[in-house]
Amino acid sequence: MPPILAPVFVQVLITFYLLARIAASRTSSAVTDPTLLKRGALDANAWPEQAQKFANCYRNQFELPVLFYLAVLLWMTTGGAGPVMLGLAWTFVALRIIHMLIHTGSNNVRHRFYAFAAGMLAVLAMWVVLAVHLIT
Predict the structure, then answer these.
(1) In the 3-class helix/strand/coil scheme, how is 63-97 assigned residue by residue?
(2) Where does the chain have alpha helices with state H?
């Protein structure tokens, strides 16, 4: 397996982990309050706060990480990933883990923003490296 795929698999694992946590959180909530199934089907805000945190964080995995996946794919199809790209990929995934822990924990918006912004810069750097690679 090419080394650049390891951070991709970790990012995918994060996504599935969050999906499992949504299911567990909603299931336990629905056991204590069976009306949540009907209310939650039409209104995501009906679920308890922790279930909403996991759901929001899960949805977030289909925003910025999409640019990460695409950058890795393009890099692989245009000549393989070097150590800089690999370092940036691992940096992005580490920041996504931090972002997830904040998002599903304290949900401190300022701290979450810093983790998100740092991850965004890592992906932006990946795209800059990719562009330079393609131009030269």
Answers:
(1) CHHHHHHHHHHHHHHCCCCCHHHHHHHHHHHHHHH
(2) 5-32, 35-42, 49-60, 64-77, 83-104, 109-135
To which residue do tokens 């949540």 refer? Answer: 36
Q: What is the pLDDT of residues 58-79, one digit of tens each?
A: 999 999 999 999 999 999 999 8
Q: Provide the whole-model pTM.
A: 0.93
User: How distant is the alpha carbon of residue 30 from its chain centre?
Assistant: 26
Tokens of 23: 């299911």
Q: How many residues are recorded in the chain?
A: 136
Task: Kindly report the backbone phi and psi dihedral angles of residue 3, in degrees, each rounded to the nearest multiple of 5, phi listed first.
Answer: -55, -30
Query: Using CA atoms, how far apart are residues 14 and 131, in angstroms rounded to an integer?
Result: 28
14-to-60, 71, 78, 83, 106 alpha-carbon distances in Å: 11, 18, 27, 23, 18
Tell me the two tokens of residue 110: 């300022």
For 80, other C-beta atoms within 10 Å of its C-beta total: 12
If DSSP codes are grouped into helix, strand and coil, which group holds residue 122?
A: helix
